[in-house]
From TrEMBL, chains A, B:
<dbReference type="InterPro" id="IPR012318">
    <property type="entry name" value="HTH_CRP"/>
</dbReference>
<keyword id="KW-0804">Transcription</keyword>
<feature type="domain" description="HTH crp-type">
    <location>
        <begin position="152"/>
        <end position="226"/>
    </location>
</feature>
<dbReference type="InterPro" id="IPR036388">
    <property type="entry name" value="WH-like_DNA-bd_sf"/>
</dbReference>
<keyword id="KW-0238">DNA-binding</keyword>
<dbReference type="InterPro" id="IPR014710">
    <property type="entry name" value="RmlC-like_jellyroll"/>
</dbReference>
<keyword id="KW-0805">Transcription regulation</keyword>
<dbReference type="Pfam" id="PF13545">
    <property type="entry name" value="HTH_Crp_2"/>
</dbReference>
<dbReference type="InterPro" id="IPR036390">
    <property type="entry name" value="WH_DNA-bd_sf"/>
</dbReference>
<protein>
    <submittedName>
        <fullName>Crp/Fnr family transcriptional regulator</fullName>
    </submittedName>
</protein>
<dbReference type="InterPro" id="IPR018490">
    <property type="entry name" value="cNMP-bd_dom_sf"/>
</dbReference>
Length: 254, 254
DNA sequence: CGAAGGCTTGATTCAGATCAATTCTTGTGG
DNA sequence: CCACAAGAATTGATCTGAATCAAGCCTTCG
């Protein structure tokens, strides 16, 4: 059941929610690699591995993760359908953390695309730009992750992460209205949020009671998206690139 | 009093602890830009700003930071002497968070170096490699930051961050034996560690009592570096690149 | 149908936050 | 060189958000 979108719509290639033109998609279509499936909760790459074979996620969710010696687990970031596992524009790239599947996963090898983006960016400008943009987004989400777990309350963290998921899935066409499929266990959320699974559960209960969200069978509905975003200070990465329209948000003191 | 090292030793350029050859340093030496000083706790760049003018830190410490609407502050990463503020290899780079000084700061404009690294990497291979390496280190430290604040105890967090500072300063020649100058307030540490300033203070007291560290006048001495690293799971980024020597550390379960 | 994994809930504990003084430093101006 | 003011560091007392422990209850799915 690959309910989570294909990353190519009618011949248009999409990476991390960024569409290539039909023309460039056509050029690249025959460069796509083999498809693999992976079961949930398996290690895909280990710290220190070479990242020369990035894989595009066609369905399912994955993450980067680090373990402490006593078994504590920290999820560093999540990868959703359309994201690329192990994308690096470095000529000699190394995994800075482990990569693991969180659900059943279907991936496609895109090592060739990586090579093209690196060696002939001029021939594939959109591909190269999409790769760079994906890296920027990845860093943006890392920074969001730090702010969430460093300075936000449990209910803010959960709200913020749900908004991030919604935003990212929307870009890939995987949200329906205000709803999306969330295939993660509460434990997988907890390990990303720096909380215990029990407390994630209670926090969901709180958000439901306050009518911020509805959750039924793995489907999350954000009922008050504006209010939710306001409450937890959520911002889209796109906001950063439209500096001309919005006047500069004069930030808090010093 | 710029007690914190110059980033150039006898004509050798050093970026983030990575030395260029004498030859390439000589080629680049005349491309260095103007020097500026900045007072402590001022905003250097805001979210969304163009990053076309990176600045090398010659002395002092800085950080990237994000504020919540009620004034809570999260420090995302720290920049030490020899680091570059706003380094990006993207053609059209944007600040993903604010940049601020934490101490008095002396910086040097290195926009020209950025341009050379981008446009003529073949002529300046070491410069280009150093820039890439710095970006990798930066991401490595972001991941460490996430693990610290997401899943470690206060005393582990503090120990881990001190080890990181020691490691980074050592590479630039700014550590003396087991000691280094730590010019940050406990509040600046707290905002990076996701703790309150009071608790940082108490945690220092604990680490002192256990004879892990000594602190006097802004000088930190790591008394039991091995034990400390073991206790908090600290690892050097270099470990990742020497996969051949060390057999693969089979990590915790799945 | 049964087993296993995930979810939910209650009871209890605890790490770290918050509040409130007091000292200690450090930089400044006279 | 000294006095002081402002900012840091330190300490105590108290509170609280989230962890932990421990059942029970749902869903899946073979």
């Amino acid at each position: 059941m690959d309910r989570y979108a294909p990353a190519a719509f009618g011949g248009i290639l999409t990476f991390g929610g960024i569409n290539l033109s039909r023309a460039e998609s056509a050029l690249l279509a025959r460069q796509l690699g083999a498809i693999q499936t992976h079961r949930p909760n398996v290690r895909l790459l280990s710290e220190g591995d070479m990242l020369d074979r990035p894989r595009l996620i066609r369905s399912g969710w994955a993450c980067r993760v680090r373990f402490l010696s006593d078994g504590r687990r920290q999820i560093l970031n999540y990868y959703l359908p359309g994201d690329i596992l192990g994308l690096s524009l470095d000529p000699d790239p190394v995994a800075l953390a482990g990569y693991a599947s969180l659900t059943r996963l279907m991936t496609m090898e895109v090592g060739t695309l990586r090579t093209l983006a690196l060696d002939r960016p001029d021939e594939y400008p959109e591909l190269a730009a999409a790769c760079r943009r994906m890296k920027v987004h990845e860093e943006f989400y890392l920074l969001a992750q730090i702010t969430r777990i460093g300075r936000q309350k449990a209910y803010e963290r959960v709200a913020h992460l749900l908004l991030e998921f919604y935003s990212r899935l929307s870009r890939t066409g995987l949200a329906e209205g205000a709803s999306f499929q969330l295939p993660l266990t509460q434990e997988a959320l907890a390990d990303g949020l720096g909380l215990s699974a029990v407390h994630v559960n209670r926090t969901f209960k709180l958000l439901k009671r306050k009518n911020y969200v509805r959750v039924e069978r793995g489907t999350v509905t954000l009922l008050e998206r504006e209010a939710l975003a306001e409450m937890c200070g959520f911002r889209e990465p796109e906001d950063l690139f439209q500096v001309d329209t919005v006047p500069h948000k004069t930030a808090v003191s010093f």
